[in-house]
Design brief:
The chain is of the alpha+beta class. It contains eight helices and eight strands. The protein folds into two domains: 1-42 and 179-220; 45-168, OB fold (Dihydrolipoamide Acetyltransferase, E2P). The longest helix is centred in the N-terminal third of the chain and has 39 residues, at 3-41.
């Protein structure tokens, strides 16, 4: 294969396709996170009466850790156990919910495995959404193929967990993800190896001139005038992220059945939400 064509393919794959695939994966993961939050907000808070194992959500503080992978939580009146053996944990940024914080901070929830958080202090606040096994004396939350458990560590009030998670639950920049650094570094190394091969040959001056810019391509965006366009891009991306967060927050009240086309019963305030709460929909408010 022609060495120039090979250099173009390497640049295309490692500087374009792989970061793009990482961006798609990152956006899909955060979209799944927000979807799970919406699903969680539609089920009752434990200990709502139920028959058999059903999906529930729970707000509680850490009481104890059992056998490394099972934690005990308490809300002051009830205690539950949570099986975290195969679970990933989301940790919310520690800011109060307000628009100024959204403009100042674009931090996303941390995403990690339970084994990396096993030393959490007593009293750490948790939000749990998953299936509940009521067969034992202390109910057990667990994950299920039909109801994947969602675990969030937070330091905000229970009423703010949903809004705060929706507000921050997206990647700061999808194109700078876990794949991007490895992909860029690998692409630069391969381009440099091709350049070294060309330098060891004679009569390849054009290839050398062609390979040098490709090898340095990831860093060229920081050279004038690219540096100004880069900061403009960062600013516009941050603003777009804030707008999308605000859009999702405004859509939250519309997640309930009947919100788009409320019935006469719902308009009179007699509509019972899936969480067991009675709606107070005001005519003309939707």
């Amino acid at each position: 294969m022609n060495i120039n064509l090979l250099a173009v393919l390497i640049a295309l794959i490692f500087f374009g396709i792989l970061p793009f695939l990482g961006a798609v994966y990152s956006r899909t993961r955060w979209r799944r996170f927000r979807k799970s939050l919406i699903e969680a907000s539609m089920v009752p808070v434990y200990p709502a009466s139920s028959s058999g194992n059903q999906a529930r959500r729970f707000f509680g503080s850490l009481d104890a850790i059992e056998d490394e992978n099972i934690i005990w939580l308490s809300d002051g009146r009830h205690r539950v156990r949570v099986d975290l053996s195969t679970q990933h944990i989301f940790v919310l940024p520690g800011h109060d919910l307000n628009s100024e914080v959204l403009q100042r901070s674009d931090a996303s929830p941390a995403y990690t495995r339970w084994k990396n958080l096993s030393s959490l202090p007593e009293g750490t606040r948790f939000f749990i959404y998953g299936m509940v096994d009521n067969s034992s004396l202390v109910p057990l939350f667990y994950t299920d193929p039909l109801c994947r458990m969602l675990v969030i560590v937070h330091d905000v009030e229970s009423e703010q967990v949903l809004s705060r998670s929706i507000q921050t639950g997206r990647q700061r920049n999808e194109f700078w993800n876990s794949i991007t650094p490895f992909s860029l570094l690998s692409g630069v190394m391969l381009e440099l190896l091709l350049l070294l091969q060309v330098l060891q040959q004679s009569g390849e001056d054009f290839s050398m001139i062609f390979l040098v810019p490709l090898a340095l391509l990831p860093g060229l965006i920081l050279a004038p005038p690219g540096i100004f366009l880069y900061f403009l891009y960062r600013s516009q991306w941050r603003q777009g992220r804030n707008y999308r967060s605000q859009r999702d927050l405004l859509r939250l009240p519309l997640r309930y059945p009947g919100a788009y086309s409320p019935t006469a019963e719902a308009m009179n305030g007699r509509y019972v939400l899936p969480t067991g709460m009675r709606s107070s929909m005001i005519p003309g408010s939707v």
